[in-house]
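Hi F.,

I've been meaning to write this up properly since the lab meeting, where we talked about keeping a consistent format for the predictions we share between groups. The idea is simple: the sequence comes first, exactly as it goes in, then the structure tokens exactly as they come out, then a line or two of notes. No screenshots and no reformatting. I'm using this chain as the first example so we have something concrete to point to.
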Amino acid sequence: MSGTATRRLSSMTKEQWKELLVKNAIYIVIFMIIMFIIISEPSFLSANVFRNILTQSAVRLILAFGVGGIIILQGTDLSLGRSVGFAAVITGSLLQRADYASRFYPDMPALPLVVPLLIACAVSAFFSAINGWVVAKFKIHPFLATLGMMITLYGVLSIYFASGAPGPQPIGGFDTRYTDFVIGSTLGIPNLVIYAAIISVIVWVLWNKTTFGKNLYAVGGNPEAAKVSGVNVSKTIILVYVMAGILYGIGGYLEAARIGSANNGTGYGYELDAIAACVVGGISFSGGIGKVSGAVAGVLMFTVISYGMTFIGMDQYFQYIIKGVIIVAAVALDAKKYIKKT
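Output, unedited:
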């Protein structure tokens, strides 16, 4: 720490210290949890654990980018998990081995890997576009609009899942081309990490270097002012939801291969982890605030905590409590900062 920084800290008043601690309280708590994990199990600090954390973070990050854009619009998306599950089931049903006994489509020839990806993205984007249209045109709160879509999607997903030749049973036996493409490595780097990095760059460019990104932050910050400035608010909202749907489709495509199977329960609860990671990473529900780097940091922090608590053998129920407290604290601190600004 430089001399200037040291003098600045020493000259801070009690109120300034209090404000600094409140502003960074959630990060302090997360740091303390991580230190507790490391002290409890020093082997947590290993290259293999780091690799596993990055791999587990990959799909979560892609999903966080999807819902992160919607949060910047002062919205949310409760249908994320079911959309991911639908994409995973579609992908799995189309990419099974020819010699697998319980094929979803017994007579289907081997498809190029990109075809199921495009179908999964198209289906997810379609349902997300409906969300965006309902929110933009009918001014329905995103919570209610996406809650209804979450229930609807589960019904549609379950009907499709039960329609396969073997009936409603987990979809497995994936084509090795598919699993190698997703969970393989390139130059020692997990493919999932590479895909997440590529998408991170694309999202950063979209959010920061395009008219779409400028409109996203303008509408999220103040929809009325954006409209007066000539921004097509409805179009922007729908496009953000469509983009989210495409990312959910990619996430579902990757997730099916990562976990090795898919069923109508795949993706359940994923929306909570994605939303929580975004909020912890500084993407604010107050609208117009959020960075790609924040989403990355939030996802990594949550993955480290989740993986670490499992690593030291902590009871799953305690894990739920800790994650829940972190989520509530993050939202409360975000609201406190917003109220103070206004």
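Notes:
Residues 120 and 340 are 43 Å apart (CA to CA).
The longest strand covers residues 185-186.

If this format works for you, I'll send the rest the same way.

G.
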